[in-house]
Amino acid sequence: MLEEDELKPYIGGILKQLLARYSIDSLMVFNFEGGKKNNQTARIFSGYNMSAMGYPRNYEGCPLLTLEMIHHFLRSSESWLSLSQDNYLLIHSEYGGWPVLAFALAALLVYLRRCKDERKALEMIHKYAPPGLVELYSPLDPAPSHLRYLKYVSRRHKSPELWPPADRTLNLNCAIIRTVPNFDGEGGCRPIFRIYGPDPLAPHDSSAKVLFSTPKTDDFVQLYTQV
User: Fold this and answer.
1) Residue 116: which domain range?
2) Segment 154-173 mean pLDDT
3) Model confidence over 33-42: pLDDT tens digits?
4) 0.85 cut: is pTM over it?
5) % of the chain beyond a pLDDT of 90
6) Which of 120, 141, 162 is the last residue of a domain?
7) How far apart are CA 62 and CA 67, in angstroms?
8) Contact between residue 212 and residue 194 where contact means Cβ atoms under 8 Å apart
9) Are residues 212 and 127 in the same domain?
10) Is 48 in contact with 19 (CB distance < 8 Å)?
11) Tell me: the pLDDT tens digits for 92-130?
């Protein structure tokens, strides 16, 4: 993690190397950021007359994007790359944004049919990072969710008319925890579930709200052991 006074010369050095080889007009910039209004990384790019398209680095703490944002990223990337063989994508993630950046690149490989296998696409991107980087930034393993969303992207080739997927009601029948966390020191935990998403009763408000939370009473919050 770079301090603010270190970030500008770091990114500036990279941009100077790139602009020595490529035209500034050939680069489209994406930045997975922390959501600050006055984003420092975006200001650094603007100093080089480059505008960075910002995406959040997580959704309510989960290293994923909404399907709407995934669709926007994929279509923008495809459109830019198809304009010229000399066009390139410059993608930057701020601290903690690597898991989402890895997912976005894997989704782009699947979307452009550069890789047909979702798991291989994700593994291919992870090879470019030091071991353990995903675990460092994400307390939960994001791979199952990433693979599920990559399968959504794959469906675009099978049923283009169904992409992006329309909103529909889902029923959550069960939640499976493969390994029970040892929160109490004796091999058990008391899980509380929260579901975040836009309020279906307020279609014009896309911000995430708590749609469901387990009541904090003894009837619902029970102790589950590893056994």
Assistant:
1) 4-162
2) 81
3) 866 666 888 8
4) no
5) 33
6) 162
7) 13
8) yes
9) no
10) yes
11) 988 888 899 999 999 999 999 999 899 999 999 999 888
Domain stop point among 116, 131, 162:
162
Task: Based on the fold, state whether residues 158 and 174 are members of the same structural domain.
Answer: no
3-state secondary structure of 28: strand
User: And the tokens for 151?
Assistant: 């399968």
pLDDT surpassing 80 at residue 54: yes
- Same domain membership, residue 172 and residue 149: no
Same domain, 24 and 56: yes
In a 3-state reduction of DSSP, which class is residue 59? strand
* Buried/exposed 27-65: b ≥16 CB within 10 Å, e otherwise: bbbbbbbbeeeebebbebbeebebebebbbbbeeeebbb
Tell me, yes or no, whether 88 and 156 share the same domain: yes
Spell out the residues 6+ positions from residue 41 whose beta carbon is closer than 8 angstroms to its own. Answer: 7, 11, 31, 33, 52, 92, 94
Q: Could you give the number of structural domains in the chain? A: 2
124 and 84 co-located in one domain: yes
The CATH number of the domain holding residue 83 is 3.90.190.10
Contact 62, 39 (CB under 8 A): no
Give residues with Cβ within 8 angstroms of 47, minimum separation 6: 12
Record the tokens describing residue 94, joined without a space: 């701020």
Per-residue tokens: 138: 């994400």
Same domain (yes/no): 133, 199:
no
pLDDT value of position 151: 92
Give CA separation, 220 vs 181, 190, 216, in Å.
18, 9, 7
